[in-house]
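User: Hi! I have a protein structure encoded as tokens and I'd like to know what sequence might fold into it. I'm fairly new to this, so please keep things simple.
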């Protein structure tokens, strides 16, 4: 598919901007019945991305039935491989996975948004289910050599003790929009669901810490203030193990990034280990 043909079957969608392509989807800005809209077409046939796309559609349907405590794009149209939603005002504060140091108000906005997610109780259904089988993931990472076997039982115990809370699951700066008035809103809910508490904070902290270590400390402090530092430490280990796997298998290593991830994982594992049996 190329050009307008990507959305040629959507008679009510008027393309008004260049197409953006990734290895899994094509997106474009336009108009839907006179309203600003974003259309996304899934182009990947991989089972993983088809499942994620279907989950995102389900998420927007849940938001229609049970509006959450933050602004979400209105759902205009959804199909098996296409999604059309309201275009919210604003632009991402950064587009890289590991952004350069962000302004303090942006970091505050990110943290506030994650706190709002964690406080929301989704209705029964797709957003009220565990996002993944964490026990199976820990065992897989240990079997593959990404985590020390000696830490397996403590990590499993920490995850089992952590309360579940709603999380975005992919709180990249590129998945946020900052409006002219400074208000920050997250979009892209393909990984949303229940996570061990502080999982979003731990993931955001990793991505911010590459170029702004104090921002990671703010994430840890937020977890501590909420009484969830132990869960934060456990999730930091697991997310760093995932980053290590991603940079080994799917993401190009630049600026010696894989070595930095490995060092962060070693430090996070040591911190978790030192505190695993504290009351």
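Assistant: Happy to help. Inverse folding works backwards from shape to sequence: for each of the 279 positions I chose a residue that suits the local structure. Here it is:
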């Amino acid at each position: 598919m190329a050009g307008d043909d990507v959305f040629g079957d959507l008679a009510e969608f008027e393309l008004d901007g260049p197409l953006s392509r990734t290895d899994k989807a094509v997106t474009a800005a336009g108009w839907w019945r006179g309203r600003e809209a974003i259309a996304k077409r899934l182009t990947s046939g991989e089972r993983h991305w088809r499942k994620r796309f279907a989950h995102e559609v389900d998420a927007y349907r849940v938001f229609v039935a049970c509006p959450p405590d933050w602004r979400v794009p209105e759902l205009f149209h959804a199909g098996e491989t296409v999604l059309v939603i309201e275009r919210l005002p604003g632009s991402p504060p950064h587009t890289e996975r590991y952004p350069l140091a962000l302004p303090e108000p942006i970091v505050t906005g990110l943290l506030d948004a994650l706190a709002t997610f964690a406080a929301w109780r989704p209705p029964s259904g797709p957003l009220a289910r565990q996002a993944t089988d964490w026990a199976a993931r820990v065992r897989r990472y240990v079997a593959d050599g990404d985590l020390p076997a000696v830490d397996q039982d403590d990590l499993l115990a920490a995850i089992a003790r952590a309360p579940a809370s709603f999380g975005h699951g992919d709180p990249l700066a590129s998945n946020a929009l900052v409006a002219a008035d400074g208000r920050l809103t997250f979009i892209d809910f393909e990984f949303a669901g229940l996570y061990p508490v502080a999982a979003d904070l731990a993931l955001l902290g990793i991505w911010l810490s590459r170029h702004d270590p104090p921002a990671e400390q703010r994430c840890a402090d937020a977890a501590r203030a909420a009484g969830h530092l132990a869960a934060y430490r456990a999730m930091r280990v697991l997310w760093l193990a995932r980053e290590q796997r991603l940079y080994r298998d799917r993401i190009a290593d630049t600026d010696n990034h894989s070595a930095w991830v490995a060092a962060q994982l070693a430090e996070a594992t040591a911190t978790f280990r030192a505190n695993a049996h504290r009351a």
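A useful reference point when you look it over: The mean pLDDT is 94. Feel free to ask if any position seems puzzling.
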